[in-house]
Amino acid sequence: AIVDTGASSNWIDHSIFLRTGCRLKRTRVRAGGVDGQPVEVVGEGKIVVRLAKLSFNVNVVVMRKLPAGILLGLDFLRRTEATLDWERGWLTLSLSHRSGRFEVRALGVEAGSEEEEDVQSLIQELDLSESSVAKQDRERLRDLLIEFADVFVGLGKVDGVLHRIKVPEMVEPYCALLRRKAPKELDQERAFVQEWIEKGVLEPCASPWATYNVLVPRRVVVTVSFTGQL
Description:
CATH superfamily of the domain at 2-110: Acid Proteases
Number of strands: 10
Radius of gyration: 23 Å
Number of helices: 5
CATH class of the domain at 2-110: Mainly Beta
Strand order of the largest sheet: 1-5-2-4-3
Distance between the termini: 55 Å
Order of helices and strands: EEHEEEHEEEEHHEH
Structural class: alpha+beta
């Protein structure tokens, strides 16, 4: 089985599901691969997963030709309160009655960079060649950015990992359509932000330049105009 932190659901190949003897139900789930490959969804069901002395029920979406056989996603990770230690190669699961630690091997995952990006070097790498502004003005802009580099925050570093997914050429990356977020999603977002602040990943800042995502109360509109400033 593969544990995929980027999958929202748990998946199982149809041929393997038939061997479990579990009931297959109809489903409205529609899915597509991030690599552009079509996904044939057959239905959904519930199976029992056993790891050493641990056993738990898992809701799965059944599909045909799943290379991994069984793919456990975020639903599994949340239910088992799983934690992943990529440096040591451990997966720790916690259930109501017991917990267990299992050795895992990372696929397409590597440790994130622990070095903070230098703002000065990022400004030097800034590509202004496509601008319609005269070359002299572009250089003046670059000098201005370097002179006041202190107003820009660095990209910082996150105690996490990088996931790399190979996709065929000319395949557009998967993205979700824009939509209004539900109150539950907004609450989760606020909780994540607060957690990152407590861990030191984010730092509270009153400057509107601190991030391109500005969190504001509803009915408050924030606009930044650069007209005539460059």
